[in-house]
Amino acid sequence: MSNTAMVMYEEEYQQIKSIIAKLCDDANAKMVFLVDKNGQQIASHGEIGNIDTTSLASLTAGNVAATDGLARLIGEKEFPVLSHEGEKDNIHISIVAQRVILVVIFDERSSLGLVRLRVKRASNELTEVFDSIVRKIEAEKERGAELESPFAEITDEDIDNLFRE
User: What are 64-91's pLDDT values in tens digits?
Assistant: First the structure.
């Protein structure tokens, strides 16, 4: 699955949003984010407030990448679940479908045990959604559809012209 280009379809995006909203409520979390391994936010739900979601997404991906490096150094394949405990807030990070990172931020209203329990169910549901996306992509490729980046038609010259004074 991880070798397939990521394309997000509206139906699956709505399913993802529904799953993380339910996770946020069921785990009594402050907020839930879904981030790709490149640090791009896919979806979020909860008390976003003054959080810089772009930084949160990229730092989370960096944290996972660094932890993967640590795992390899000690002979582990990966650490699929990470937890960080703070004075007020805690972060639970897990890898879903070997492609995306699920981030749950919670405080004293919840517990790590409850979050882990709810994340397990949500991870299974999210994996089904991402498997559905892969099936759609493969079906489109079989029909001969080109799945190209929306930026494929932009040339270096176009970019240079954009930034000329």
Answer: 999 999 999 999 988 999 999 999 999 9
